[in-house]
């Protein structure tokens, strides 16, 4: 038996999953884990395919441990967990494929160099994705590594949806709308086609509401518009990111308030969103449990921004047949889904309250004009599927 791994490596955390391959080459989840607090006091938790704890480890004095150090320990653990099963490849989430990389691909030195050149387009994410590829290449030089792109799913965006109204030379230099969360959207499109093929053929908005949040307008399972553009800052309000702003705010902060570019970047990525508006937390659970008016205000703004952006995407789609909620908030916060759908009565959305409370797959009332669904996302599974397809030679 063989196995493949999926890695999603960020600035302070690494998510991973191990899949064994049965005779039909179907990936079966064998272990899933998260390494958190890298750079402070790293902690690792791993569960098996059924969610039962497999192992946990903490490094209270591990502030000096690098991603590479921790990946090396993780790799060792994975080898022992897999026992006799041979690891035949590792897939990585790579946030930016630029205009060139759409399909997942095997990583070799020229590909890695080309991906490195895209780092300025996603400076807070891409370097960490690539560092993991470098680290695995050192640990296991002959193991095939596959890059799976978060931008790839959006290659079907019509040209008009990719352009900023800036002088065209900047567009030609790559300043355009790309869209992100593509692995999640690809997974949801695949699942929706299985559970509701008729809806999947129609006009659907997928709401990926997690720490990072975005919306994707799909027509027949393909992305035709999305709320994130050039960077993962765009669009919706997020846990700590501000989402779309009047660009004049950036100019004002720098020119009138004297903030450095680095200070503005830090504010927009780390001190804004639910955290910035509430002054309490970035975590929706904490805000929902809080009695502070600032928490309620942050939640209200979060939902309002989702509704407003849905309105824009409905216009792009020329109508709407359904909404799919996914990711941490979309899958688990019945209150957020209720707040959002309550503002969508004008579209004919009608919630089934008890189905919503239990996070049922279908949460629309029978007489709702829109189909409302909850589908748990699984970016690691999508990475595994894409990796497998590359290893089987189905992708060039
Ligand atoms: P990421 O993968 O980007 O870390 P997630 O998709 O896990 O993000 O989403 C994290 C968000 O989901 C947090 O705001 C968290 O509070 C929220 N969340 C998770 N479970 C619940 C829940 N039961 N109720 C409300 N919000 C939840």
UniProtKB/TrEMBL annotation:
The record's section on HAMAP family has: Acetate_kinase (MF_00020)
Return the similarity comment: Belongs to the acetokinase family.
* Biological-process GO terms, alphabetical: acetate metabolic process; acetyl-CoA biosynthetic process
Q: How is the cofactor bound?
A: Mg(2+). Can also accept Mn(2+).
* Residues noted as binding Mg(2+) in the record, renumbered to the chain: 8, 379
Q: What is its main location?
A: cytoplasm
- For the site Transition state stabilizer, which positions are given? 181, 241
Could you tell me which InterPro entries the record lists for this protein? Ac/propionate_kinase, Aliphatic_acid_kin_short-chain, Aliphatic_acid_kinase_CS, ATPase_NBD
Please name the pathway.
Metabolic intermediate biosynthesis; acetyl-CoA biosynthesis; acetyl-CoA from acetate: step 1/2
Q: What class of enzyme is it?
A: transferase
One matching Pfam family is Acetate_kinase
| MF-aspect GO terms | acetate kinase activity; ATP binding; magnesium ion binding
Q: Which UniProt keywords apply?
A: ATP-binding, Cytoplasm, Kinase, Magnesium, Metal-binding, Nucleotide-binding, Transferase
Active site (catalytic residues): 150
Job description of the protein: Catalyzes the formation of acetyl phosphate from acetate and ATP. Can also catalyze the reverse reaction.
Q: What is its EC number?
A: 2.7.2.1
Q: Where in the cell is it found?
A: Cytoplasm
Specify which residues bind substrate according to the UniProt entry for this protein: 93
Organism, scientific name? Novosphingobium umbonatum
Going by the entry's taxonomy, the superkingdom of the source organism is recorded as: Bacteria
Q: What is this protein called?
A: Acetate kinase
Gene Ontology CC entries for this record: cytosol
What positions does the entry give for ATP binding?
A: 15, 208-212, 283-285, 328-332
Reactions accelerated catalytically: acetate + ATP = acetyl phosphate + ADP
Q: Which cofactor does it need?
A: Mg(2+); Mn(2+)
């Amino acid at each position: 038996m063989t196995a493949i791994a999926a890695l999603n490596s960020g600035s302070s955390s690494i998510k991973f999953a191990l899949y064994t391959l049965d005779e039909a080459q179907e990936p079966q989840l064998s272990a899933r884990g998260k390494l958190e607090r890298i750079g402070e006091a790293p902690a690792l938790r791993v569960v098996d395919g059924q969610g039962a704890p497999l192992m946990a480890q903490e490094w209270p004095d591990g502030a000096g441990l690098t991603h590479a150090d921790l990946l090396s320990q993780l790799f060792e653990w994975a080898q022992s967990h897999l026992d006799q099963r041979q690891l035949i490849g590792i897939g990585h989430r790579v946030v930016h494929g630029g205009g060139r990389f759409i399909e997942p691909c095997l990583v070799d030195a020229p590909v890695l160099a080309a991906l490195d050149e895209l780092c300025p387009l996603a400076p807070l994410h891409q370097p960490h994705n690539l560092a993991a590829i470098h680290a695995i290449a050192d640990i296991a030089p002959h193991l095939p590594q596959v890059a799976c792109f978060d931008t790839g799913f959006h290659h079907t965006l019509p040209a008009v949806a990719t352009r900023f109204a800036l002088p065209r030379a900047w567009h030609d230099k790559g300043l355009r709308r790309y869209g992100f969360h593509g692995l999640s959207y690809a997974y949801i499109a695949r699942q929706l086609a299985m559970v509701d093929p008729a809806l999947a053929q129609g006009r659907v908005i997928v709401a990926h509401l997690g720490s990072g949040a975005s919306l994707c307008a799909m027509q027949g399972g393909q992305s035709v518009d999305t709320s994130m553009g050039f960077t993962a800052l765009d669009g919706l309000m997020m846990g700590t990111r501000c989402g779309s702003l009047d660009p004049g705010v950036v100019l004002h902060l720098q020119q009138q308030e004297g903030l450095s570019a680095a200070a503005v970047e830090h504010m927009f990525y780390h001190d804004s969103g639910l955290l910035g508006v509430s002054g309490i937390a970035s975590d929706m659970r904490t805000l929902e449990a809080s009695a502070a008016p600032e928490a309620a205000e942050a939640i209200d703004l979060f939902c309002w921004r989702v509704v407003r952006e849905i309105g824009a995407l409905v216009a792009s789609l020329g109508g709407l047949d359904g909404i799919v909620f996914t990711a941490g908030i979309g899958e688990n916060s019945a209150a957020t889904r209720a707040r959002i759908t309550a503002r969508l009565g004008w579209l004919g959305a009608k919630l089934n309250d008890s189905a919503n409370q239990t996070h049922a797959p279908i949460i629309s009332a029978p007489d709702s004009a829109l189909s409302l669904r909850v589908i748990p996302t699984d970016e690691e599974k999508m990475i595994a599927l894409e990796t497998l397809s590359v290893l089987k030679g189905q992708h060039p």
